[in-house]
Amino acid sequence: MTYCLAISLYEGLVFASDSRTNAGVDYVTTFSKMHVFTPAPDRIFVVLTAGNLATTQEVLHRLRRDLDAAEIAESLRRVRYLFEAADYLGRLSCEVQLAHMQGMQRAGFSSEASFIIGGQIRGQAPGLFLVYPQGNYISASPETPYLQIGETKYGKPALDRVVEPGLTLEDGARLALVSLDATMRSNISVGPPLEVAICPRDGFAIAHYLNLKGDSPFYAEVRERWQEGLRRAFQLLPRFDWET
Amino acid sequence: MTYCLAISLYEGLVFASDSRTNAGVDYVTTFSKMHVFTPAPDRIFVVLTAGNLATTQEVLHRLRRDLDAAEIAESLRRVRYLFEAADYLGRLSCEVQLAHMQGMQRAGFSSEASFIIGGQIRGQAPGLFLVYPQGNYISASPETPYLQIGETKYGKPALDRVVEPGLTLEDGARLALVSLDATMRSNISVGPPLEVAICPRDGFAIAHYLNLKGDSPFYAEVRERWQEGLRRAFQLLPRFDWET
C-alpha cells in the first residue's frame, strides 16, 4: 500500500508520501511516490501516486513524453488551468489502466491507480486535486484543505484535529509527518523513507524537500515528542465520578 | 457501520461500542451493540456486535433461546471454557448467515457479521475473542491486548500508542473513549450514544456501565481535553533546521 497526502494552506502547498511498495508481503520494495514537474518558469506541479505501480510509472512516463514532444497539443506545459492538468492526468491514467486491464483481470489483479496533483500556474491560486482511478477528480477547499490517497484512514484523525488553512507551511509539514507516522505505526504496508515537499505560494519551486529515512534523527524526534505528547494528553483526561 | 472494541487488562476487561446503525445514509438508527449475559453466578459474558443487524439480532435471540431451553446441550450456561463460547457463537452466526444468504445475495447485500465475546468463567482467567463472519475466532493476548470490529482503522493509532495490559480499568475505559471519538470524528457512520462497560477480574459482574450521549458533559470534557492535549503535543514538535 501507500499513503500520500497534500495540504493546501494560505501560504502554499505541502506534499508528503511514504515510499513502500509491495506485491504481497514477500516482495516489498522502495519507490518514490512524489514527482515534481517544472516544465516552464510560470508553473509547478507535484504528482503523488498510489495504486498499481506499473500504471503509475507508465502515467509518469507519458507525462514526461508529452513534455518532450513539441507537436503534442496537451501537456503539463500547455494546460492553462490546474483542473486541466488533473483532467489530462485522469485521461492518461484511464488509458494506461485500460491498456492492461484484460491481462490484469485474467490474473485477478487490479490496474487501478489514484493520484494527487497540485501546484500553481502564474496568475492563479495554488491548488490540489485528487484524481480517482475512474479519471474524475475533486479539489481541496478551505473547509477540507487536505487530500489523501492510499491507506488513508489511520492518518485521518490527527489531520482532522489540527488542520486548518492558516497553518504555516512548516506546521503543515509537521502535521503531514504525524499523519504518516500514525499510519506507519498501525500498518506495515506503509513505510519509510518519507518524502516531504514544501511549495510556497507564488514561488514556483520546491522551497524545502526532506527525504527522511526510518532512522533519521529529526524523524525520530518528531515521533518521540508526539508519542510523549499523546501520553501526556491521555494522562490529563478527566476522571470518572467513582475515581476520587 | 459500527465501531466496537474491547481491551484485556491485568485488572479485568473493558468493553466499548458506538450505537449507530445505517442501511444507506437515509436510514440511520440507534441500536445497542453491547449485550451482557450472566447466566450463572460463576460466569459473565459480554457480546459486542458489528455487521448485518438482522444477523446479529437473530444470533442474540438464539443465544437467549438456548439459555431458556433446559434440554439443549449447548449454551452460554453450559460452556466450560471461554473459547467454547466463541466457537458456539461462531456456529450460531454461520447458521444465521447461511439461512438468509440466498435472499441477501439476490438483493446484492451481505449477511455477514462479526462479534467480540469476552468475559470470565470462575477458575479461569478473563478473556476476549473476536469471532469472524466465517465463524472462526482469535483471542487477545498480552502483546495485543485489544480487539476491534467494524470501522477499526481510525481508532487504532491512539490505541497502539497507549495500550498495555498494565493500564487500570479506568484508563482502559478512557482509552476506549478516545479511540471511539477519533473514529466518530472521521467517520459519520459511527455515532453516539457510546456504551462503556468495565468488568473487573473475578467480579463476575459489570462494575461500571456508562451510556454517553453526544451531549454528555463527561464525554464533552474527554473530547475537549484530548483535543487540547493533541494540539499541545503538536506545538511541541521539533522545528525544521531552517526555522530558527
Explain this structure.
Two copies of one chain form a homodimer. Chain A is built from five helices and twelve strands. With 244 residues, the first copy, chain A, is α+β, with helices and mostly antiparallel strands. The interface between A and B is large, with 43 and 42 residues.
Short description:
2 copies of one chain form a homodimer. Chain A is an alpha+beta fold and 244 residues long.
Specify which chain pair forms the largest interface: A-B, 43 and 42 residues
Radius of gyration of chain A: 19 Å
Multimeric state of these chains?
A: homodimer
Strand order of the largest sheet of chain A: 10-1-2-11-12
Amount of beta strand of chain A: 25-35%
Proportion of helical residues of chain A: 25-40%
The low-confidence runs of chain A, each spanning 5 or more residues with pLDDT under 50, are none
The overall average pLDDT of chain A, rounded, is: 94
The named CATH superfamily of chain A: Aminohydrolase, N-terminal nucleophile (Ntn) domain
Biggest beta-sheet profile of chain A? 5 strands, antiparallel
